Structure formats: C-alpha cells, structure tokens
Amino acid sequence: MSRKPTPAQSGDRARVEVLFDKPQALSRLFGQYDQNLVALENRLGVYITARGNRVGLEGSAEQVAVARDVLNDLYARINRGEEVDTGLVDASIAMSAEPTFDGIIRTDGGKGPGGGASIMIRTRKKTIVPRTPAQAHYMQALTSHDMIFALGPAGTGKTYVAVAQAVAQLITGSVQRLILSRPAVEAGERLGFLPGDMKEKVDPYLRPLYDALYDCLPAEQVERRIASGEIEVAPIAFMRGRTLADAFVILDEAQNTTPAQMKMFLTRFGQNSRMVICGDPKQVDIPGGVEASGLADAVRRLEGVDGIAMARFTVGDVVRHPIVGRIVAAYEGAG
Question: What is the DSSP string of 72-134?
Fold first, then answer.
C-alpha cells in the first residue's frame, strides 16, 4: 500500500535488495554500460550494486524506496515490450511521488571507512569504493570542492580515484571535457632523444594517465572521446594561455612543477570546472634539484583558502600490493 514518508523515514539510512526473476532482461533494464543505473544513482543520490539477478540499493529511506519502485516499474515496462532509456528513468522518478516503504530496512550500516555515509564512484567499467578513511575523505572532497590537492606517497589511489570521478562526471554530462596533464620530467634518468611526432614524444610521460582512463572506460570510448576532444591528455606546457571551463582537470606528478608552472596551471581554472592536483611532496624529480617544488609552494600558499581542499595520504593508505607500503615505509624511515 502506497503511503507518504514520514520525516524520520526520509532521513534514515536504509537498504533493500530487489530480486528479478528474468536475468536475461537485466541488460535492458540496466542500459548500455549501466547508463540507467548511473542515471538513477545521480538523480536520487542512492548507491546501487548488482550481482546476478539481485540489485542492492542504499541511501536515505525515501530515496531507496523511490529507486526500488522505479526499478520495478522499468522492469514491468520491459516485460511489456517497451524500450527503457534514461529519459524513461526520469519520467518514472517523476511519477513516484509516493514511494512504498514495505521491505525497506533502516540501518546505521552502510558506513564507509571514514565513518560517514557510503560513497562510491560508478564508471562504465567498474564501481570504485573507498578502501581507507583517507580515500573516503578524498572522494567526499571530490564532490564538494572546486579544487583539491591530493598529497601522499605512491600507491594511495590519488590519481586513479580522481580519474574515476572525472570519468563519472563526463558520462553524466556535469562537465563537458576531461583534461589530464603532468610535467614531462624523467624520474632521475635521461631518456635522450625520442623519435616521432609531438604526441609520440610526450605519450610515454602520460602513460599512467592513459592506464587509469582505460580502466574506467571501454577502449573504444576512450579513443572516440580523445578524437572528439572530450578527453585531452597533454603535458603541462600545453596549458599556457588557456581557460579551462566546463572541465574536470587533473594535474598528476605535481611535485615536479616549478612554482611558476603551478601558478600558470592553477590560474587556468574556468567556470563550472573542478581541478585536482596530485603529487608526492617527497618524490621531487625536478632536474638539478635546485628550484623549489611548485606543489609544496602552492600548498603553503593555498591551505585554508575557501573552496580548496587538502587530502593527505600516508604510507598506511597504500592500496597496491602490501609490499609497496612496506617499501615506501622503508625508504621514508631511511631518511
């Protein structure tokens, strides 16, 4: 029986699992690359997990109830032979003004590692959840601040999580472009002359950014979006003179910028944009080691500035193979 939610129901955390009896229909229900689920998550602020013919929903009691009713409505439409797309998702949400609460489980669970509400990033290929309290804080900052500095050792997910958030926002249309950049600085060695055109010369420096992209989007989509200009991967020198509006901008290996380069990059910030600056202040590879790192200089100047968040990671936040954390700790302990 349909009934309006009480205030307590609206504010409670809740979860529910929906079971569908025709697994073969779920690809149509979810949409290509799960676009219908992504739309439902973004419109209602719920978190969705799918395993086999079971779909888990988590969020506020009211929004979970709406999401469950919408999924059931869309599933019924598919069984009647109708086609389902994101437009129909919106229409179904609009018609679910009085969600049914039968079977909704209210819980104080669903907490992330940081003790707050669950948080996740859904991309076309995978869903990313925080694996340490620092990652949970970082993922929350990525949704609430215009500029985020992610500081800490290798293997803590600084760049990977930022790329995943950027891809998610590009998919949903909240930004129009994804711009990934890093300084073209060798890590201690001298590579000498590199053959090929400009792209072939700089791509080796940008490979880690491509790797993160291909982990979040199907390869054909990465190539298509790069060709159309929706995704741009370029050295920091290519940013000079530009205004980066309607974009999610990531600067990786920021510790290898000079103060002048960092100032140039930060002042490219445009309307409706988000900028993430990732780096390890203890791993500076600026040639000669004479000039101060632009990352350390920017953090010193900008910490506490409104709209700018600082996400700090330690060796305890390393999420690669456990031995990576022990290696980082050994080097840091050696002074």
Answer: HHHHHHHHTT----HHHHHHHHHT-SS---TTPEE-S--B-TTSSB---EE-SS-EE--SSHH
Sort strands 13-19 and 105-106 into parallel, antiparallel or unpaired: antiparallel
The alpha carbon dihedral of 63, 69, 71, 74 has a sign of negative
d(CA 25, CA 267): 49
Q: Are 148 and 138 in contact (CB under 8 A)?
A: yes
Cα–Cα distances (Å) from 218 to 50, 177, 194, 223, 315, in that order, read: 19, 17, 29, 9, 31
Top-confidence residue, 279 or 203 = 279
Q: Is residue 278 over pLDDT 60?
A: yes
Residue 161 has what pLDDT? 93
Cα–Cα dist 243/311, whole Å: 25
Quick one: DSSP state of residue 99? -
Q: Which residues lie closer than 8 Å to 325 by C-beta, 6 or more apart?
A: 155, 315, 316, 318
